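Regression test case RT-17, inverse folding.

Input:
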């Protein structure tokens, strides 16, 4: 299949989804690697962002390492689906919101600073929509990456160090909040981040590098939008697996080509009995269906496949709200 992207666009989309340089002028470093100047890299990333091919250049935080998050669902009456989806999407804590083919037809991911804030968001959504919300928090990840290799089976496999969940300090919260929307496409993006949070450039880079090393940041780089890159069919494939077998089956399914995510989540009985999830992406349903059949055969269990039919919202997770620097702190940094 011919690529709709030129060689520079393809290189930036495919090769820089992780291991992005944490240096003062990262776009110049990337340019040196791909054989173009810094200005060409910045212009190309800006163009790709404008076309919707990428959502940002920045951090993907590892689940359960910072803040709190969950996958949630509700069953919206068909005549109110769009209204309810819009109500859900207005919450800053919601970063993904999809319609899927099932009685539980609206699926969204919510993140917040802590469990109490997350619970409050879900309760507010339930009250606003009049629909029961089921929460399905992550229990164990077997493969969560969602990096797309555009040259082969659209799946990256990289081992990420296990990190212990911890509460960030006030400085870290400010930096995480500023980083949530990605780097600004400027020559010294880490210096620009520092201006926003009251840190010098070197400190910003050291903190981000440390988060990568400890596993709080799962990957740092170009975050692509799979739908705009041609992967227009995706199915959430779920299984009801005996609890003493789920880890073994989960690890087996995670290794299969075409599986971009595989994880164990809590059940929500009596409404939702499934505890093992695989995400499968393809260019068409015809590409995805054989993968679903194969996963069911390997698991030795029937698969329930929920194809997405409409995307209402897709953006980076937001754990903390960005708070402007006090005037005295901004002045101190400016005069440093």
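Golden output:
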């Amino acid at each position: 299949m011919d690529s709709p992207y030129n060689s520079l666009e393809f290189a930036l989309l495919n090769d820089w989804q992780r291991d992005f340089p944490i240096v003062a002028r990262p776009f110049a470093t990337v340019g040196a690697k791909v054989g173009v100047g810094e200005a060409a890299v910045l212009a190309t990333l800006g163009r790709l962002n404008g076309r919707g091919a990428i959502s940002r250049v920045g951090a993907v935080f590892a689940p359960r390492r910072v803040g709190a998050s969950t996958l949630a669902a509700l069953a919206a009456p068909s005549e109110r689906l769009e209204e309810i989806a819009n109500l859900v999407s207005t919450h800053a804590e919601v970063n993904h919101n999809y319609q899927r083919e099932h009685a539980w037809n609206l699926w969204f991911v919510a993140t917040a600073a802590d469990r109490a804030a997350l619970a409050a968001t879900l309760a507010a959504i339930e009250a606003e929509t009049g629909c029961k919300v089921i929460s399905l928090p992550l229990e164990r990840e077997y493969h969560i990456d969602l990096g797309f290799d555009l040259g082969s089976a659209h799946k990256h496999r990289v081992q990420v160090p296990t990190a212990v969940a911890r509460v960030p300090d006030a400085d870290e919260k400010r930096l995480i909040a500023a980083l949530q929307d990605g780097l600004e496409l400027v020559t010294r993006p880490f210096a620009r981040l520092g201006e926003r949070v009251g840190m010098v450039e070197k400190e910003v880079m050291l903190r981000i590098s440390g988060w990568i090393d400890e596993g709080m940041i799962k990957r740092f780089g170009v975050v692509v939008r799979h739908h705009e890159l041609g992967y227009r069919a995706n199915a959430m494939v779920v299984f009801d697996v005996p609890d003493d077998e789920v880890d073994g089956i989960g690890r087996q399914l995670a290794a299969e080509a075409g599986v971009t995510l595989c994880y164990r989540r809590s059940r929500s009985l009596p409404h939702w009995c499934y505890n093992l999830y695989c995400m499968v992406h393809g260019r068409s349903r015809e590409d995805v269906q054989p993968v679903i059949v194969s996963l069911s055969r390997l698991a030795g269990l029937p698969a329930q496949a929920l194809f997405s039919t409409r995307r209402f919202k897709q953006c980076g997770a937001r754990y903390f709200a960005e708070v402007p620097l006090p005037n005295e702190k901004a002045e101190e940094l400016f005069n440093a």
